């Protein structure tokens, strides 16, 4: 699968991606828990997409790394497609 093939609302996304850049993590409270999220721009040979990394996953990544996303989820926010590991997905650094 490639970035160009992703559709909003699609799960089961398996992609190999290069991390281009990572934004500063943001912290917020939800349901009484402190959560952190950082958005990163990732690319493959067909394009780029924003990907969200949560909590302890933020420390595992750096710009220039290649990751393999398994069972990821593509959502849409403000008309822009975004990737995340979602509830059932995971990623590994290659």
Verbal overview:
This protein has 94 residues and is mainly beta. The chain has one domain: Nucleic acid-binding proteins (OB fold (Dihydrolipoamide Acetyltransferase, E2P)). Helices cover 0% and strands 63% of the residues. It is built from no helices and 7 strands. The protein has strands spanning 10-22, 26-30, 33-44, 47-54, 66-77, 80-84, 90-93. It has a 5-stranded mixed β-barrel. Strand 3 and strand 4 form a beta hairpin. It is globular and about 40 Å long. The two termini are 17 Å apart. The mean pLDDT is 96.
The gist of it:
This protein has strands at residues 10-22, 26-30, 33-44, 47-54, 66-77, 80-84, 90-93.
CATH homologous superfamily classification:
Nucleic acid-binding proteins
**Beta-strand proportion:** over 45%
- Assign the CATH architecture: Beta Barrel
Detail the poorly predicted runs: none
Number of E-type strands: 7
Number of domains: 1
């Amino acid at each position: 699968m490639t970035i160009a093939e992703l559709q909003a609302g699609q799960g089961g996304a398996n992609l190999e991606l290069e991390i281009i850049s990572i934004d500063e993590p943001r912290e917020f409270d939800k349901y009484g828990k402190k959560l952190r999220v950082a958005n990163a721009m990732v690319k493959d040979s067909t394009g780029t997409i924003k990907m969200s990394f949560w909590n302890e996953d933020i420390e595992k990544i750096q710009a220039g790394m290649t990751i393999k996303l398994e069972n990821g989820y593509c959502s849409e926010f403000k008309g822009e497609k975004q990737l995340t590991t979602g509830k059932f997905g995971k990623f590994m650094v290659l």
